[in-house]
């Protein structure tokens, strides 16, 4: 998904910088009522998103399980200042957010504009997520999570070769690649996904319109190539199979971690959270046995610890 999104955004970057009028000119040609809205939307500062993903998704799931305790670190181990540079719908960023939310680590979010990336100009590493912890940048979702986990649980260092590690690798090597072909499966699902991406991401008004339609079209074609690359013939079947593979791995336990989620539970939950209420996620829950675990995870992860500004 990441590479594919990168390609789509690359195409869009080129399209916006060459063949289309400069956004500002285009904005000026829009009717007054829309331009006043545009003025509000197109501030060049990174715009913190007012709806946390967790909040946005929580409305439709009936929570029937008893509330489980979250795992806040002891106050002396808690990082003081945590900032996540992200794209709202990026699966790797959502893995990190699930970890931070579950551990009640307060964090600010800087939504990166995927076209200009100006919010991460200071960084040599040009992908997201980047997490700054008390000023030190950490990169790569799995590394970020391991380093933070070791910091807040020094007594239980992440093991090199445990069951959780195997499934965390499965998330990065398999599960994320099944998602794009599903959420961009046909034109209506690609538009639904880009409606979500553009309404939660950091885009100017003009970019928002362009990205929604051009992005949906680009990703529709990119996802066909991804299917070939990852040998997927029926994308929904692959998604259902991945969901059932995960349920089998649980082997009757509430969580892979037993009575409480471990890093693999948080990784699977993190990458599924942005798609849960898209058509693909609804189909997945309706057609597989993953729903009960997902609902337990929602309860366990609870409220987002994101600091709203
Ligand atoms: N292995 C990295 C992958 C990160 C990644 O590929 N992020 C994507 C967004 S989902 C990205 O920043 N792509 C580059 C781009 O958008 O230009 C991780 O786990 O953090």
UniProtKB/TrEMBL annotation:
Q: Which CDD domains match?
A: GST_C_mPGES2 (cd03197)
Q: Where in the cell is it found?
A: Endomembrane system
Per UniProt, the keywords (alphabetical) are: Fatty acid biosynthesis, Fatty acid metabolism, Isomerase, Lipid biosynthesis, Lipid metabolism, Membrane, Prostaglandin biosynthesis, Prostaglandin metabolism, Transmembrane, Transmembrane helix
Statement: the UniProt record of this protein carries the keyword Cell membrane: no
GO biological process terms held by the UniProt record: prostaglandin biosynthetic process
Under Gene Ontology molecular function, one entry of this record is: prostaglandin-E synthase activity
Q: What is its EC number?
A: 5.3.99.3
Catalytically driven reaction(s): prostaglandin H2 = prostaglandin E2; prostaglandin H2 = (12S)-hydroxy-(5Z,8E,10E)-heptadecatrienoate + malonaldehyde
Primary residence: membrane
* PROSITE patterns (alphabetical): GLUTAREDOXIN_1, GLUTAREDOXIN_2, GST_NTER
The pathway noted for it is: Lipid metabolism; prostaglandin biosynthesis
Gene3D superfamilies for the chain: 1.20.1050.10, Glutaredoxin (3.40.30.10)
The record places domain GST N-terminal at 80-156
Q: Which GO terms describe its cellular component?
A: endomembrane system; mitochondrion
What is the membrane topology here? Single-pass membrane protein
| Record family assignment | Belongs to the GST superfamily.
Name under which the protein is recorded: Prostaglandin E synthase 2
């Amino acid at each position: 998904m990441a590479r594919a999104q990168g390609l789509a955004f690359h195409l869009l970057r080129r399209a916006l910088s060459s063949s289309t009028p400069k956004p500002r000119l285009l904005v000026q040609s829009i009717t007054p009522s829309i331009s006043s809205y545009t003025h509000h939307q197109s501030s060049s500062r990174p715009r913190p998103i007012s709806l946390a993903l967790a909040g946005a998704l929580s409305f439709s799931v009936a929570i029937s399980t008893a509330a489980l305790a979250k795992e806040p670190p002891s106050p002396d181990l808690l990082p003081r200042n945590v900032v996540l540079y992200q794209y709202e719908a990026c699966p790797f960023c959502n893995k990190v957010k699930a970890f931070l939310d579950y551990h009640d680590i307060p964090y600010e979010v800087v939504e990166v504009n995927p076209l200009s990336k100006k919010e991460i100009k200071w960084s040599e590493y040009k992908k997201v997520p980047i997490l700054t912890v008390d000023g030190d940048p950490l990169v790569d979702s799995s590394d970020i999570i391991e380093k933070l986990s070791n910091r807040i649980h020094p007594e239980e260092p992440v093991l090199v070769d445990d069951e959780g590690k195997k499934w965390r690798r499965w998330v990065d090597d398999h599960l994320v690649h099944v998602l794009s072909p599903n959420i961009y499966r046909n034109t209506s699902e690609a538009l639904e996904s880009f409606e979500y991406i553009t309404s939660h991401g950091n885009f100017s008004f003009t970019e928002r319109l362009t990205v929604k339609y051009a992005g949906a079209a680009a990703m529709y074609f990119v996802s066909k190539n991804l299917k070939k690359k990852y040998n997927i013939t029926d994308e929904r079947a692959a998604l259902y199979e991945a969901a059932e593979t995960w349920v089998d791995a649980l082997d009757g336990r509430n969580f892979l971690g037993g009575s409480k989620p471990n890093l693999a539970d948080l990784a699977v939950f993190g990458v599924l959270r942005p798609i849960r209420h898209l058509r693909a996620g609804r189909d997945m829950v309706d057609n597989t046995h993953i729903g009960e675990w997902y609902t337990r995870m929602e309860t366990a992860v609870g409220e987002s610890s994101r600091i709203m500004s």
